[in-house]
């Protein structure tokens, strides 16, 4: 099962779309618009794309159908590197969403961008890139740049454009092999539209500049002291009371909502550290039941920018912190 797969609940009549892989046994499914529920994998089955065409809806379903807001998969864009032989990989871009994608793909190396492909990637389809990726040149692969615009006829929630720059590390790349959606083949698989990967803005709002004041400030600066930029944090406290200071709001959150909040803060801390060139940070997650620690360790093991992680110094943090070494 993958993000974007359309599924049916086995013991109910509802159908929905997988929006998140919570853990190896549980997925999050969006039903009736955007109402999301956790469901065990064994309690859902994937709906074949050709099922409705071949069988149509059952008479009793049509008769007793209750109008509901359609559920559209908005996530599920993957890169799949398929082995052509033991020396070469083929790159496929997979659209497992319910939107058509106007996309571009290019390489960026030493500040120079080279366009490679542009086109429309239809919903629930894939396209093979013209590149053949050589395994022996893995360390010299360029940064891969992808841009996507979403389209679907009719009424639905607007999806903003997406820009992704991808660079891979051997330590994580070659451990990522699994069955690719749409292709139905084993490949090194990466989802590039996850919630924990921040969108880079394609454009920025125009800035109003007073040319006269700008010239005056350059020629006669009022403050000649250097601007002091605060360094990014290297110790991140993920206790929920540190992230949510509103006591009433915190009291209304269930355990799952707290975990989601803590994981978002964790992902933001890693992204900020990478963006600022920080090589080591410490995540203070506490001991508790170990759920947060285990989930953080699982995500660190899959992060391409993480060299290694270990328990932090016990004399300072006890048993409730993890030190992360970044590449």
How does this structure look, described?
The chain is an alpha+beta fold and 327 residues long. It folds into 3 domains: 6-63, Roll (SH3 type barrels), CATH 2.30.30; 77-191, Smr-associated-like (Immunoglobulin-like); 235-326, Ribosomal Protein S8, Chain: A, domain 1 (2-Layer Sandwich). Helices cover 21% and strands 35% of the residues. The chain is built from 9 helices and 18 strands. The protein has helices spanning 51-55, 59-63, 170-173, 211-219, 240-243, 247-251, 255-275, 291-302, 314-317; strands spanning 6-9, 15-23, 26-31, 35-40, 44-46, 77-83, 88-95, 100-109, 112-121, 125-134, 143-151, 162-166, 177-179, 186-191, 235-237, 280-284, 306-311, 321-326. The protein has a 5-stranded antiparallel β-sheet with strand order 4-3-2-1-5, with no helix packed on it. Strand 8 (100-109) and strand 9 form a beta hairpin. Helix 7 (255-275) runs parallel beside helix 8 (291-302). The chain starts with 5 loop residues before the first strand and ends with a strand. Mean pLDDT is 81; it is low at 57-63 and 198-207.
Give the topology string: H per helix, E per strand: EEEEEHHEEEEEEEHEEHEHHHEHEHE
Taken as a percent bin, the fraction of beta residues is 35-45%
Order the strands across the largest sheet as they lie in space.
4-3-2-1-5
Structural class: alpha+beta
User: How many angstroms does the end-to-end distance come to?
Assistant: 31 Å
The biggest sheet, with number of strands, parallel, antiparallel or mixed sense and barrel status, is: 5 strands, antiparallel
The CATH class label of the largest domain is Mainly Beta
Write down the CATH topology of the largest domain: Immunoglobulin-like
* Mean pLDDT over all positions: 81
- Assign the CATH superfamily of the largest domain: Smr-associated-like
Number of strands: 18
Low-confidence stretches: 57-63, 198-207
What best-fitting shape do the alpha-carbon axes yield? globular
Tally of contiguous helical segments:
9
Helix content: 10-25%
Radius of gyration: 23 Å
User: Please, how many domains?
Assistant: 3
Oligomer: single chain
Tell me the CATH architecture of the largest domain.
Answer: Sandwich
Pfam families: Smr
Protein name: Smr domain-containing protein
InterPro entries: Smr_assoc-like_sf, Smr_dom, Smr_dom_sf
Organism: Flexibacter flexilis DSM 6793
């Amino acid at each position: 099962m993958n993000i974007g797969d359309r599924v049916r609940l086995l013991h109910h009549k509802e159908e929905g779309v997988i929006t998140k892989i919570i853990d190896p046994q549980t997925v999050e499914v969006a039903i009736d618009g955007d109402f999301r529920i956790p469901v065990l994998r064994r309690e859902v089955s994937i709906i074949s794309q050709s099922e409705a065409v071949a069988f149509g809806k059952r008479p009793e379903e049509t008769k007793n159908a209750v109008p509901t807001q359609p559920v559209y998969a908005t996530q599920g864009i993957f890169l799949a590197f398929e082995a052509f032989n033991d020396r070469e990989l083929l790159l496929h871009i997979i659209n497992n969403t319910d939107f058509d994608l106007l996309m571009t793909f290019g390489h960026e190396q030493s500040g120079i961008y080279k366009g490679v492909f542009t086109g429309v990637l239809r919903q629930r389809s894939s396209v093979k890139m013209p590149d053949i990726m050589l395994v022996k040149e893995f360390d010299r692969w360029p940064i891969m740049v992808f841009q996507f615009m979403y389209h679907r006829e009719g009424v639905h929630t607007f999806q903003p454009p997406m820009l992704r720059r991808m660079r891979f590390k051997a330590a994580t790349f070659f451990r990522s092999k699994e069955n690719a959606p749409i292709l139905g083949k084993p490949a090194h698989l990466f989802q590039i539209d996850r919630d924990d990967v921040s969108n880079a803005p394609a454009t920025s709002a125009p800035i109003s500049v007073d040319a006269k004041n700008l010239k005056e400030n350059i020629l006669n600066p009022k403050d000649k002291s250097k601007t002091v930029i605060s360094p990014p944090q290297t110790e991140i406290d993920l206790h929920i009371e540190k992230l949510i200071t509103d006591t009433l709001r915190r009291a209304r959150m269930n355990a799952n909502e707290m975990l989601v909040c803590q994981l978002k803060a964790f992902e933001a801390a890693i992204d900020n550290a990478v963006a600022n060139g920080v090589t080591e940070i410490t995540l203070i997650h506490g001991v508790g039941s170990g759920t947060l620690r285990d989930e953080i360790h699982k995500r660190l093991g899959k992060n391409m920018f993480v060299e290694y992680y270990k328990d932090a110094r016990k004399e300072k943090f006890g048993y409730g912190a993890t030190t992360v070494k970044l590449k």
